[in-house]
Structure to design on (214 residues):
């Protein structure tokens, strides 16, 4: 074998060995790169799941807070409506007890009718039930007719007391003839704990209206 042939064979062998070594090293590095990439991908997916969980939890908390706020607002609104209804119903009963009567005997029973709509220790304006004209009223053909009323509530205080203004339009009759049809105002106090009025006071009459309201 010629010397130049041996040189060619040697060079070729060296190149083959080098190529095999380089390929092996490349595969080793590629395998390590792939492993690192896979590890990084796993870590990234884990972080994404954690972030998604946090976002979901935060959204749930915000939704709960919003729902609770809505529920509280709705609850307060419903309570106010129910309170207004209770006050209005009871105030109208007071107005009717004061101004609906047929005859002197019925007129004298007004205080008892009103008292059952108030608390036992209620403060009542004595001018609503005068004593000096009882004898004059007896035997008279008198009557009273409740026409209408309007009710306005104030704000409830820390003790559950609600100021109420009651405005009543009514008529009074003598011998079957209408002699007056005033509108009278009253201050009352309603207690939300007892569900009763704790005070009743007239604040005076407004200008008369001779027409009966519908």
């Amino acid at each position: 074998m010629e010397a130049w042939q041996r040189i060619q064979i040697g060079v070729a062998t060296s190149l083959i060995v080098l190529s095999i070594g380089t390929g092996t090293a490349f595969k080793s590095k590629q395998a390590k790169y792939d492993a690192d990439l896979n590890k990084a991908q796993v870590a990234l997916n884990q972080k994404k799941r954690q972030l998604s969980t946090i976002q979901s939890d935060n959204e749930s908390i915000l939704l709960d807070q919003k729902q609770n706020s809505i529920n509280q607002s709705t609850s307060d609104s419903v309570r106010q409506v129910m309170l207004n209804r209770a006050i209005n119903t009871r105030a109208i009963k007071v107005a009717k007890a004061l101004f609906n009567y047929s005859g002197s005997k019925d007129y004298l029973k007004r205080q008892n009718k009103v008292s059952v709509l108030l608390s036992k220790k209620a403060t009542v304006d004595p001018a609503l039930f005068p004593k000096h004209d009882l004898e004059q009223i007896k035997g008279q053909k008198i009557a009273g007719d409740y026409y209408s009323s309007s009710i306005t509530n104030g704000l409830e205080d820390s003790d559950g007391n609600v100021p109420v203004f009651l405005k009543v339009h009514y008529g009074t009759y003598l011998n079957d003839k209408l002699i007056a049809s005033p509108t009278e105002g009253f201050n009352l106090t309603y207690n939300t704990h007892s569900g009763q009025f704790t005070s009743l006071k007239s604040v005076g009459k407004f200008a008369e209206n001779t027409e009966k309201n519908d």
Notes: The mean pLDDT is 79. The CA atoms of residues 142 and 174 lie 5 Å apart. The chain is about 50% helix and 25% strand.
